[in-house]
Amino acid sequence: MADQRPRLDAVIFDMDGLLVDTETLSERAWRELLRRDFGVVPDETDRAWFAAIVGKSGPDSWTSVRDHFGLALAMPRGLPEHEREYRAIYERILAEGVDPLPGVIDLVHACHEAGLRLGIASSSRLAHIEHIVEQLGLAPLFDALTSGKEVPRSKPDPAIYRLACQRLGVEPAAAVAIEDSGSGVMAARDAGLRCLAVPSEYTAAHDFSLASAVRPSLIGVTPADLAALPWEG
Prior knowledge:
Helix content is 41%, strand content 11%. By secondary structure, it is an alpha/beta fold. The protein has 2 domains: 10-21 and 99-227, HAD superfamily/HAD-like (Rossmann fold, 3-Layer(aba) Sandwich), CATH 3.40.50; 23-94. It has a 6-stranded parallel beta sheet, sandwiched between helices. α1 (22-38) packs across α4 and α2 packs antiparallel against α3.
């Protein structure tokens, strides 16, 4: 029987926890903010609270942290101010520099050399996405950057992947997403993309049952591997 998989025209990467280990930076920012503004000092037994908010939108993250630590935080009225405070801390930490996760640079270059269109679909602000791809020296290789701030709802809603495909000029069936979180995988699959999941230490317990395949890292992954991902359309 003939192979029914569609051709591969584009690869769309998540960013945080997939291209770079910004999850560690984000945890540092949360810990500093909680200590400074709320007098809360999370210990190692509290790491689950951070893993639980990876990939979530700002309001959902703040609600989870408030409930976990019992904070006196009015939602959503107090959210804008706390978001600004968190962002200032995070941007200061981010400015110290980030390193690519294993296999990332090789795969991005290999996909570009194979003639695939490349995009990023990240829940981060567009300025953060631009800053990181510049730091990694990958900015010229990406054809479209898409932020979760540009769509009405964050992952797991599929809107960000639909917008990324539109900007790349490809049908979702001809694109593969690479994600590290369960919510990201759900967003990609609901948008009609195949999806390779690469869990991080923070997302290892997420549900990846919707992923087309799961790999421990991007080391050794090739464009041919992405093209061969199973298609259930």
